[in-house]
Amino acid sequence: MSTAIPAPSDWVESVSSLKLPARADRRLQELMDRNTDGLLNRAEHAELETLVELSESLSLVRAEAFHLLGRQPE
Q: Whole-angstrom Cα distance, residue 57 to residue 65?
């Protein structure tokens, strides 16, 4: 069962532009590169998993906002 909650279009528009802050995005890329090279320690691996989950969650929220706006992601 789906529940629809009305939201102002400007709010949905702002949600569609959510992304990781630049610093977090750079860290994510750095950790992914180190992971590819097999150089992550346990703490870095946990940090990578957290950043990946956050990035995926933001992507899903953005996708839903684009869907509600009837647009394709840019």
A: 12
